[in-house]
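tokens incoming
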């Protein structure tokens, strides 16, 4: 079987202002090292379900579906976007629950079925990668249970570190820093999880003990 590295069919090229990478031919707005980091993570924590905010091109969702199947995890994947794309129907045929819906409104609450999805038995991973990652993280972190993970993309601990270590090197977008989520993290009992690895692919990963 090919390694994860061998299955990366396109790498990001910031010098050409190209942030797209591809895994098994499916494009995603992700730095290409993300695939190995997430493969190792999924293999380790064995989630029962994944809630993703921001389906977008769908390539990262397809990657998650592919590796959870290969790892024989029977993981339920529920992904949301506010804009429909033609390829979403193909993703549904692959067994991914793709919904075109704004579940946040004024960011004061989310529908009960989303809360129930997160709170169901077994490990849930929540991925915040939509239009307002700060609001997504701060709201959804209220509903995760012991043993769950919540993550957000386009993250760096602070702007200074982003400019020194990330910008024009790894990734060119910064949409969430630690000060944006520190209060919610404290209120909801969240701790960093393997953050050294996730920082290198511009994600924050937190865990509820």
């Amino acid at each position: 079987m090919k390694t994860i590295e061998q299955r990366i069919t396109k790498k990001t090229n910031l010098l050409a202002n190209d942030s797209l990478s591809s895994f098994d031919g499916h494009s995603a707005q992700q730095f290409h090292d993300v695939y190995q980091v997430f493969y190792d993570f999924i293999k380790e924590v064995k989630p029962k379900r994944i809630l993703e905010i921001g389906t977008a091109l769908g390539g990262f969702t397809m990657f998650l579906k592919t590796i959870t199947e290969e790892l024989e995890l029977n993981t339920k994947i529920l992904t949301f976007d506010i804009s429909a794309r033609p390829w979403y129907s193909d993703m549904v045929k692959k067994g991914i629950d793709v919904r075109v819906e704004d579940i946040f409104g004024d960011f004061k609450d989310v529908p009960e079925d989303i809360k129930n999805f997160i709170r169901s038995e077994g490990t849930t991973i929540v991925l915040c990668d939509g239009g307002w990652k700060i609001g997504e993280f701060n709201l959804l972190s209220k509903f995760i249970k012991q043993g769950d993970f919540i993550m957000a993309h386009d993250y760096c601990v602070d702007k200074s570190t982003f400019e020194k270590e990330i910008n024009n090197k790894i990734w060119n977008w910064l949409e969430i820093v630690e000060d944006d989520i520190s209060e919610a993290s404290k209120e909801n009992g969240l701790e960093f999880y393997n953050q050294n690895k996730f920082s290198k692919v511009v994600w924050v990963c937190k865990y509820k003990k």
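note: The domain at 32-208 is CATH 3.40.50.150 (Rossmann fold).
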